[in-house]
Every structure is written in C-alpha cells, then in structure tokens.
Specification:
binds (3R)-3-hydroxy-3-methyl-5-(phosphonooxy)pentanoic acid, 9 helices, alpha+beta, Alpha-Beta Plaits, about 300 residues, four-stranded antiparallel sheet, Ribosomal Protein S5, domain 2, seven-stranded mixed sheet, 2 domains
Length: about 300
C-alpha cells in the first residue's frame, strides 16, 4: 500500500535558455504532455529505489542520481522520515532532453514525501527542498526548471529576482521534437562560461540580445502575434548556435521545420542534443509538422496549444 504519491510534469523553455544563467529573462511553461509519478511505500528490509535508470538499494545509487539522493537526504533529515522505505519513480519525460526531467523527479519525490507526511505541498515548500538539492547536485542552475515545474502556469523567470505568472494566450501551436540524442546541458553551460571569459564583451552582448528577444517574444504572445514570436525564436536560435549550444541533429530538425511552414524554430533547454520546438500556425499544420519531423529522424514529437490551458 502506498504511503505517499507525487506528480510533476516536464517543462518547455520557449525563450531564454542559457542567457537566463546570466540574469536575462526567460519564458517557460509546465509541459502537460509528459510527466513523472513518484510513489513511496513501506519497505521492511532496506531503503530501495525503483526507476528506469536505477533500481537497487538507496545506499548503492550511482553518482548520476546525486540529485535524488541529496534531495532524499534533506527530506529524511527534515521530516525525520522512518527508513527503510521503497521509492518508485515512473516517468514519461525523456531524460537529458532539455525537458527538465531531473527537476521533475525532484518535485515529484518532494510532493510524495509531503503527501506521506500530510504537510501542504505549496510551491514555496517544495522549492525550498528542490532548489537546495539541485544546487548541490548541479552546481549553478538558474532555477528556471524547478520553478516552472513546481508551478502550474507559464512564467517569465529571472534569476535572483523570481518569476511572474504569464498567460500564454496565442492562436498557435507548439510542436516539440526529440532529436533522440542526449542533451549536454552541463557541458554547454560550462563552455559558454569559457566563452564569457575569453570574449566577455561579445558574449555579454549576445546574452543581452537574447534577453531582448525574450522580452519581444513576451510582447508578441501578449498581443497574439505568432509571426513575431516565430521571428524572435529564429533570431534566438541564430545566437544560440553562435554560442555553441546547438548541434547537427538540432539544426537538421530546425531547418526541416522551417522548410515546412513553421513560423519559427529553435532548440529548447540546454541543447547539444535534446529537443527542438517549432511554432505552427494552427493544429492541422502542427500535426503535419509532427509527421514531417518524425520522417526527418525525430525520435518522438508532442504538440501543445498555446491558448490558455488549451493542452492537446
Ligand atoms: O536542459 P535543461 O532542461 O536542464 O535546461 C537548461 C536551461 C539552461 O538555461 C541552459 C541552464 C539553466 O540552469 O538555466
């Protein structure tokens, strides 16, 4: 019998990845198309984790699961949770694809523990644990993943300042396509930090331009101007490419989308693999684009309406 359950969806960054690390704004939303379920049960032997990436005793969890083990350590300490327990993680979010699977695991586990402890899992309470654990496990995350995933609405996020809920209310559809290649967020963030040291003036300028494009994109969404948003996405992709965040697989899907009537296309998340997004004028052209991208080698695709809660 389960003693606690928690759910979290994935996330999509519409605009502002990488520049968000340097204090520029970014737009992101919880992505209803994918999710993670965490279930905790009582265990009589030793604390145990069951997931697609690892199953075995908590004490033997690999370093790649540090985000989970660090988080559990904080939660066990805070709630004086009785061990041993059994934690099952079931996910439909592809890992390392820029969809925030790591933050989603953390949010789902935290919600499951709050459910078990019969404490209210408010966004503030959940973020308190998730942010601490993510900082230890990941070095220097901007916090956009955890903030988006622990909420329910699209947000405009700025590091150190916080977030503003933001209504996506646009007559357009967003197609998400997975290159099937693991993204390399950590490596990309590190290499961009090197660029920042090597060519501070130029790189700072590029970050500022990405920030301006995010602001223009926000206005475009508020004014329901899909073509302007598409143009902002294309310009952002050009800069992300210059910064070295794209790769061959992403470029290929992005070019394919643009050749097939997408209003704009770019990578989403950390890049160097992972997912791309393309803006479609309506649902029919979006579904056509999904087919075209699958034919062009995408492993998986999703579609999301950008009207208020118009999840497909
Ligand atoms: O690849 P993801 O889903 O973890 O997204 C990373 C977003 C970055 O802006 C590249 C990094 C960050 O910490 O904000």
């Amino acid at each position: 019998k389960s003693i606690g359950t928690g759910y979290a969806s994935g996330k999509i960054i519409l605009m502002g990845e990488h520049s968000v690390v340097y204090g520029e704004p970014a737009i992101a939303f919880p992505f209803a198309g994918t999710g993670i379920q965490a279930t905790i049960k009582v265990n009589k032997l030793e604390s145990w984790i069951e997931s697609s990436f690892f199953h075995g005793p908590l004490s033997a969890a690999p370093n790649t699961m540090r985000n989970v083990t660090v988080l559990l350590w904080y939660l066990v300490k805070h709630f004086k949770i009785p061990e041993p327990f059994y934690l099952k993680i079931e996910s439909s979010i592809p890992a390392e694809r820029g969809m925030g699977s790591s933050a989603a695991v953390a949010v789902a586990i935290t919600r499951a523990v709050f459910d078990w402890m019969e404490e209210p899992a408010t966004q503030e309470n959940v973020l308190h644990f998730v942010n601490q654990a993510e900082a230890v496990a990941h070095g220097n995350p901007s916090g956009i993943d955890a903030t988006t995933i622990s909420g329910t609405e699209p947000i405009l996020y700025q590091k150190g300042i916080g977030f503003q809920p933001f209504q996506l209310n646009m007559d357009a559809f967003l197609v998400v396509a997975d290159t099937g290649v693991k993204g390399q967020t950590r490596k990309a963030v590190k290499d961009i930090a090197k660029l920042m040291e090597l060519r501070p003036y130029e790189t700072n300028q590029q970050m500022r331009t990405l920030g301006q494009l995010t602001n223009q994109a926000q206005q475009a969404v508020l004014q329901n101007k899909p073509r302007v948003l598409g143009d902002c996405m294309n310009q952002a992709q050009g800069l992300l490419r210059l910064l070295g965040a794209s790769n061959r697989n992403l470029d290929h899907l992005i070019e394919t989308a643009l050749e097939h009537h997408a209003l704009g296309a770019k990578l989403t998340g950390g890049g160097r693999g992972g997912c791309m997004i393309a803006l479609a004028e309506n649902e029919t052209s979006g579904r056509q684009l999904q087919k075209t991208l699958l034919d062009a080698g995408a492993r998986d695709t999703w579609i999301e309406g950008l009207g208020v809660y118009a999840h497909v």
